[in-house]
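Dear support,

We are seeing what looks like truncated structure output for some complexes. This example has two components. We would appreciate it if you could run it in full and send us the complete token output so we can diff it against ours.
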Amino acid sequence: MSMEEFHQIFFEEADELMEAMEAELLEMVFEPDNPERINNVFRAAHSIKGGAATFGFAEITETTHVMETLMNEVREGAIAVDRSLVDVLLSAADCVKDLLAAVKGGGPADAGLAVATRTALEACLERSGAAPQTSPPQPDSSDEDAAAAETGAALRRYRIGFRPAHGLFRTGNDPLHILRALRELGDLEVEVDTGSVPTLDGFRADQLYLAWTLHIATGSDPEVVLEAFEWVEDLCEIDFQEVESRPEATPDDAPAAVPAAAPAGAPAVPMEAGSAAGTERRSADAGTLAAGTAERPDSAPHRGERRAAGAESATIRVGIDKIDTLINLVGELVITQSMLSDLGEDVELCDLDKLREGFQQLERHTRALQESVMKIRMVPISNVFNRMPRTVHDLTARLGKQLDLVMHGEHTELDKTLMERIGDPLVHLVRNAVDHGVEMPEVRAAHGKPERGTLTLSAFHAGGDVVIEISDDGAGLDTERIRAKARDRGLVDAGEQLDEAQVHQLIFHPGFSTAEEVSDVSGRGVGMDVVRQNILGLGGSVEIASDAGRGSTFTIRLPLTLAIVDAQLLQVAGQIYAVPLVSIVESFQVERANLKSIAERGQLYRVRDDYVPVVDLTSLFGIREATPQPVAGGLLVLVESGNGRMGLLVDDLLAQQQVVIKSLESNFRAVPGVSGATILGDGRVALIVDVTGLARLLRATGGRRGQDGGLTGIRAA
Amino acid sequence: MSHILVVDDSSSMREMVSYTLTTAGHSVMAAADGAQALRIAEDGVDHFDLVITDINMPVMDGLTLIRELRGLRRYSYRPILVLSTESSPETKSAGRSAGATGWIVKPFDPDKLLGVVGKVLPQ
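Here is the complete output from our reference environment:
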């Protein structure tokens, strides 16, 4: 195990602790007197300090040390918890996170920021009258002391009367250890005093009745010698005397003796030097303080980047139960394998059933194993949700709004990569809801709503998806304003009629922003279009439901994982395509009576009371010219996406199976309507149909060949 | 070679101490808080020659753990070292009256830790 690996463990732990600390701090605003919260924050600072000191991260050690001292005062009731204290602690937490990120990235820490943070923390301490405790733990220097002591040539003699308490053994100590330690320092003579040993009837085996007089000749100072008794000092009587001064220490030799004595006096020297350096450093800090604060706005973007870089940790924490399941399954697999190989030794026809059973078992176990392996990558969404209280806290404070954040389903699990990538879009949507959705308290009051708004974040599994909802009880989308803006920007024609849902979708249009003025909250150049793009990029979708005056709800749907999908294989003009099973509603034979041709919209097919567009994959993907009319008796696969339903015209339905998604983009290029490719059991390649993308393509082309001919020439196999 | 119980709520500290001790040939078991450590000690499966514990821990702190261990027959006289950032005379005194054998102050130097451990273990 290398130092880097220890660092890695420390970083993971520190990240977790910081997250926990931040959560506690945010709750502390509402529950200032909860001792458990105060204690948890204290302990988080304490633990990080311990680790950082061990690994020599001085800035982190010092900063967490002051935090710890401050929290200790809070714990003891000397300082009351109020909003300003929490804010100072929160920014201190930010600072520690930055320092951690800097150390992780191997870059230099922003010392100015750390100093400013400590000054702010110390100001809180001083306000309470509690003197800031100055020295954080430094690596123990007594090794150097010992080395220094050895160089002290002159021998000194001490006589030590050592009378331990009878109960010394009760602390696990043993006078023998002490005698051994002393012997290492120099020549030791031991006299034992057995005077206290009782008669046999009063004797107890677990008591210590002996006392000693020790004579030691050593180059060490009294402090060093006494160190041997450090652990038992309350538990014994010690009579310590220096019996004989060194003969050299006569007045005549004094000048010569001083240099010799100086190394021996070393323990005192580094301490003084240390504290002097400490004060020096502190005054230097004061000098850089102004510079540090002045630099802060500039360094803000850096901080963001650094944190983003640090967030992509290469390790994952997995619950032991998941690993146990895996081990069990591997055991099952091994059993099945050995059963099969036994059968394979000598196959007879009557064994066919057993063989078949064995293969079924193998299939079951393989699938279970695959699922369990996938689950290892699944992490609770609380990892992302936990960022939200802070975001909301900071924003509401800045905007003067009042808001309760309610979270449901934090334990919902999703793929780690998805979790990492959904964080930013989600934060953006939350900021957007606080900034644009929830009204100012007086506005809310005027509309007869409670002054405190509510923002609800919930996550749950629905079918094969993870659904995340961000719901506020604010003003809702202003459809009139969106419409007007869209016309101004030429996004829609003046005469074009749009229904509510279509108007809502407009906010996802690139460059669209309806805020009266671009605020520093949401107007950071990242628009809703980017949010949507990011979510689509993850194979997900985002929808809005808005009720004017009542609030809006953003619904994000994400696949559980990016790597594997349950798919239905379809045959179209000799090619095989895979369609994610979750998007398939039903399949049926085409009946001519239900088929309608409509100018501009191509063909529609009646499914019960609904008409769905018919997609001829052969023409859309340019495999062959469009069939004028789908042959009755052909198959129609009804698929559904966030953008509505449609019917795919196919020649045949093949097997349903799990397919491993291989990126088309990294192996070829991005193709609209295709989300990737997969390799089938027989080695052939099948393209995976992207139903959402297909719907977009369909809207763009009216069901005919894509205008860029994007798919022409791309054939599976 | 001895069997040692390491108690610390910080996983990096546990790893670090465990690593230091195992490379020196000891076998180590780790617990994340006093209560966990006490359960391990009480169930009697492992017989530890030495316990090294942090003081400030959730659920059950180190001093309580030491007092509890001293109440167990097996651990009445075993060495129990405190590994803590706290090193004030008051804490040390509290530790001694709880029954701690000695101190190692965090941050620790691996060689020094091994030296101290070697000192308290039966030879």
